[in-house]
Amino acid sequence: MRYRYGKHGIPLLLVSSLTVLTLTVATAYGGSGEAAGSAKRLYESRCVLCHGPRGDGKGKIGIVDRDSGSGRIWMIFPRDFTVGVFKFRTTPTGCLPTDGDLKRIIRDGVLRSGMPSHRDLSEGEVTDLVEYIKGLSPRWQEEEPCGAVIRAKRPDWVGSPESITRGKEIYKEMKCWECHGYEGRGDGPKSDRLKDDWGKPIWPFDFTTARLKRGTSPENVYLTFTTGLDGTGMPSYEDSLNEEERWHLVSYTLKLMGKVK
Questions:
Q1: pLDDT computed for residue 139 by the predictor
Q2: Are 135 and 45 members of one domain?
Q3: Residue 156 lies in a domain
Q4: How many CB atoms lie within 10 A of CB 137?
Q5: What's the whole-model pTM score?
């Protein structure tokens, strides 16, 4: 099987083979055994209903979300593990997530989505489930991990009037309003034309709802501006804005969310 990689590292099949699409947990564990069987049972009991038996996101359940502010309704599609592209990471854009990133999502779930928390699982079970998920995509076998992890250490001035003012300027300069709207309501001029890397329609976030899927802490907002949300229209600003500018942008979005005065 040979691959050509497209946007954000999504593999495009050049030679189709059902074998690759049915990668088993044995790939992740380096063989079969009790641990592999346990991980497979965990996946089948906790994940398969939404993510599907192959991990391609084609399970029996799709999630409908409604924006309370605009009344818009859209489908939320379960993550396709076979392409190895994840939105919520502490690694740079285009990189695979760390094991810690995957564990955090499994334990905490994702707000405003069908992804629940699994805090009842033991540390060993979460680790097994992570290894199983990694075995569903060839990216973990074909690519070296990026290694870099984004650290979010909040400056004391975040949320100050001066920082909010500068953040508003950056919001305009970076044309965030084109998608998120001038008042951050997700109603910008491009908001109804956005699609993810799979061609499915997506809506930019309405900051006034203050319900970010990643979480609404300043650190989580900063991570989103730094890592981007791979597979979506939300880019990384790691190269285009310096660290201080990204934190100013955090200040302004906190203002839009009503978290600061």
A1: 96
A2: yes
A3: no
A4: 25
A5: 0.81
Domain count within the chain? 2
Kindly state whether residue 99 falls inside one of the protein's structural domains: yes
CA atoms of 177 and 128, how far apart (whole Å): 42
Other beta carbons less than 10 A from residue 218's beta carbon: 19
Q: Give the pLDDT score at 247.
A: 98
Tell me the one-letter amino acid at 237: Y
252/167 Cα distance (integer angstroms): 5
Exposed, middle or buried, 155 (CB in 10 Å: 0-12/13-18/19+)? middle
Place of tokens 């405003």: 112
Q: State pLDDT tens for residues 6-46.
A: 443 433 332 222 223 333 333 444 444 666 788 999 999 99
The two counts, helices (H) then strands (E), for the chain are 11, 4
Residue 79 maps to a domain: yes
Residues 27 and 58 in one domain: yes
Tracing tokens 């305009």 back to the chain, one arrives at 172
- Residue 201: domain span: 161-256
Residues 116 and 74 in one domain: yes
Q: Indicate if 191 and 244 belong to the same structural domain.
A: yes
Nearest alpha carbon to residue 176 among 190, 165, 164, 166 = 190
CA distances from 87 to 73, 92, 180, 228, 229 (A): 21, 11, 18, 7, 4
